[in-house]
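question for whoever is on the cluster today: can someone run the full assembly for these? three chains, 1264 residues total. i dont have access anymore since they changed the login thing
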Amino acid sequence: MNQSQPATAGIVDFLVERRGLEKAGIGFLVIATVIAFFEDSPLGKLSAAYLVAFMFFLSISLGAMFFVILQHLVGAQWSVAIRRIAEILMAPIGLLGVLSLPILVPLLLGSSYPYWWNNAVLRVDDYIVSKKTPYLEATFFVFRCMIYFGVWKIIASYFSRLSRLQDGGPRADLTEQMQRKSAPSMLCFAITVNFAAFDFLMSVDPHWFSSIFGVYYFAGCAVALFATLPIFLFIAQRSGRLGSEVTVEHYHDLGKLLFGFTAFWGYIAFSQYVLIWYANIPEETVWYGAREKGVWMGVSLLLIVGHFVLPFFGLMSRKVRRNRPALLGWACFLLLMHWIDLIWLVLPSVPGAKTGVGLVDLLCLLGLGGLWSASVLRESYAAHLIPIGDPALPKSIRFHAE
Amino acid sequence: MSDETKKEIRVVGVLAQFSGKQTLVKAASEVRSKGFKDVEAYSPFPIHGIDGALGIRPTILPWLVLIAGLGGGVLAMAGQWWTNTVDYPYIISGKPMFSLPANIPVTFEVMILSAASVAFTGMLALNRLPRFGQPLLRNNRFLRVTDDGFFLLVSDDEVAEEKIRQALEEAGATDIEVVTESVEESKIPVPLVYGAVILACFALIPPLMIASARGTTSQKPRLHTWFDMDFQPKLKTQTPSNLFADGRAMRPRIKGTVRRGGLVKDTDTGYTSIPAVGTPGGDSVQEWKVEFPMEVTDSMMDRGRQRFNIQCAVCHGKAGYGNGLATIRALELQQGTWIQPTSLHADHVRQQPVGQIFNSITNGVRKMPAYKDQITPEDRWAIVLYVKALQLSQNATLEDVPADMRETLKASE
Amino acid sequence: MATIASGSHEQDLYRDVTERVCKITERPKPPRAWYIAIVFSSSLTVMLFGLIGYLIVKGVGVWGNNAPVFWAWPIVNFVFWVGIGHAGTLISAILFLFRQDWRTSINRFAEAMTIFAVMCAGIFPGIHIGRVWFVYWLAPYPSQHLAMWPNFRSPLLWDVFAVSTYASVSAMFWYMGMIPDLATLRDRATTKTRQFLYGLGALGWTGSAREWSRYEKAYMLLAALATPLVLSVHTIVSFDFAVSQLPGWHTTIFPPYFVAGAVFSGFAMVITLMVPARRFFGLKDLVTIKHLENMTKIILATGTMVGFAYGIEFFIAWYSGVRYEQFAFINRAFGPYAWAYWIMVSCNVISPQLFWFKKFRTTPWLMVVVCIFVNIGMWFERFVITVTSLSRDFLPSSWGYFKPTAVDVLMFIGSFGMFFTLFLLFCRYLPIVAMSEVKAVMDDGHDHH
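^ ran it for u. tokens below:
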């Protein structure tokens, strides 16, 4: 909509019209595949790296979905001006459904990467895996994933469609309609995210189980979203596509939420750890055992410090949260930590990927990042960047935190 | 006013009322812009923007709270470390002495508690509360401040009252008056002070009594406020009871029964050969064993010392002189029922063959009970070995010391 | 220069709030219902303390606790009351941080409820330790007599710290919020006694801008501290169970699930008390249907979370492949305590679903009915977790069936008596709505100046 900035026009043209991001993304993925074949276990390495990158971008989109539903659920007004950006961030959910195919198709073909439970021999020999066969089974797994993505696609399309309908003119009835649908949406969201976390992430080690795991992944989603939102707001404002409607107050509130959910992540991570550590039951400690060996011990400590302690004290100050460069710095840092968190969840449990983090992991992240951000960028040109027709918009713009 | 004119009067300031929060904020900045320094606003609830209008600087409270929180956390962590690893180290449920995950909850709670206490008490202290008998609160109009009243108080001493009045009027005050206080009123009444002092003195008596009781000893039995488990409806060992015909609380073993594992074998008695069980010194010829029936080793000696110190030393004493803790206490009680154990270094004991000592442990001797039920035969032999070593140690001559070490021993004398 | 003391429309609005709230404590006699209620509840309180005396004299054998169920009613009651005590601080702190202005009408009320509930909760572990007179051994103090320290690695000690911190911080929060309102009562007092007593409580508060400035900062800081605290308390209560190895107790979802359950039961209790209170004390304009509806929505949300956690527990028990886990959960639903389990499910999971309907969210008496069911359900939740799991441990020969004694039941009823007695006294003598906070968030669009 805003082409008045000649300096950025060229970049935009390259990125959008000539599909530069997609090309770069696919390029990175190809390079990752090539490099992976020089590794000891190409499939293990590649599948784990791909799963991590996939879960990373999925978490941002799911976080955005949570944010959008929540705003309707509580009837929040301060956030209206930034809600559209969140709607745009949840739009790639359809693309992510397609991008799950490189995980699902090999599974159907009998590959045991990255999920080593997908192995006919183990189903007989391994007592625990054999007990879980009805659930951890390729066809049922794929079927469940289709349900997850179906539910997410419906929720995402519903809220962005109605929100855009409002752009035509203030329609309070649409706000009410969304508000009514928000509660059941939240319920469906909670169930699907929880089980998606069990399926995609927890089952990389089929011996292990933790009932809080879904909440853990959700906490990561929220951190990822509240780190991504200020970055995207900043880019949109910098490129002139977003004006002064988004004020320092909005950044401040996002900073608070980022702070809050970082603490929440720490709380959930600590709860899970301390319960397993204290009870000291071998069935459960084995998972942490794998993450206290070799390089993973360092990563574990890094997560405690980097994903909780540092950002907790860093974001504690009101001054930091109201200072855009400082907030963006912490946001980028936390996104990095979130990626490392996902690596830490997946890699130590996947055969062939336990050795450590490598170039393949980074390339997969860049590759999926290219595809995902291309989708976000395209979506951002499809509508206004603020919901101009929302009746609560003026309040949100005037919103002034105390 | 007629009464009060006699007393010494001090002017607190000029008080002006306003009709609402916006007008108050506006008036505050107007009055301050006219150069009045000591201006304070009063309202029934916090008004946003008034801090700026009055030039109130941000409070240092957050820093105090941060310091208290961190300090509380450090203190809690250090306290847990010191108590559970240094002063009172105990392994519980296999956890390390200092286990960070298990110490986090208490650290966290103490952090919050100290931070919150400082937030609360700090707010009061910075506001100089509690502070009773404030002159403003004696002004009837001012009392509406906690209801719907909005006030400004200007108390610049140097400026003429008229000038202040004028400024306040211009700022839109609905009412202006001068607030005064009589100096006497602001003092605490003398009887109240004495009363408080006397009460405080009385309040000190119970803690002082407790403190003095803790510091002294007494021959009287302790006061049983709570019985705990000191008096239980049960029969204790060695006490009389009229429940049984023999008047004893403890029951002897029923005739003809043997405790599981308590059967004494021939080889367990200390004799080289025994025709019948249980009649030492009877018709048959019996001889005490003079050699240990097993090979004597260092580990057997260690085991013997350990068992001796556990089983025997309480009465016999660690050195075997018959002065163990139980003996000392029993003799102090002077009940006349206790017979001091014979010193293991008495000549006739020293001359006993190993078999006889073994037999004494096994079957008891005089008042000493039999230990065959408590100590296994192997352990009894180990104890005998240790007793022999003890006896030797207390009656050794220089010749008993290996030749090459005699010199060092002499030198150390 | 205008000399009329009272005038502006704005002031009238503030005065109206003051009048409505203060007249509850200022009228010479409370309604007859208050007298009936206080006689009833205080006699129950007397019964509670009589039973505690009996327990101290006779020992904990007067309860039904016995092998293998050593943690039974007293712990269930403790967790139940602590859970109820969560809504107050949640409303005060979390909703404050989220700038939910509707909280101002109910926060004082809910905070008072919190403190009284925590007091009730504190009684049960206190008398459960056996020798009540040694309860101070729980505190880490240098003792010549014991020459030892508490075991800081024990979740039960964490609990001592969590609950006592929570009680202290909520009391500070409650009292601090009340200082300006006590000043209002002081300044309106018509008798010397009232003036003196409220004056003592108000600490000489004048409402100066500097006082307010520090007060607001302190309030904000306390809210920020109370938020993680309120989460930590029930988390640590859940640790009491979850750090063990007992199937049915040891599951990682416990911390957030206990917190959700606590909020759930706390809000249900707020509604149960608020609906009659606003009727009897004429507070319908301050505590509106909208406020109540918001609370029912929170109940619906947290109730669904709790139901969700039940489901996840079952799924993970099956998924774990651990047969003990599986047995524990099958035993819950179909074992000897199945009756308790299904009471729990129907009260906790099914009954709050009625709040999907607008009629239930806006009809006060229907709300109260649902909320009473919720509280019954939440008590049974703790019963199911504690008793069902303990009664079937790893050793089948020691399996048992817990039966409460009359003392168990009467003590629980007595704790309600104590709770309501404190509450009725609070309603009679203290400002039950935070006047200064309500005034601060009132729409100033009426300002005619």
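summary bc i know u wont read the tokens: Chain A touches chain B through seven residues (CB under 8 Å). Chain A has 18 helices and no strands.
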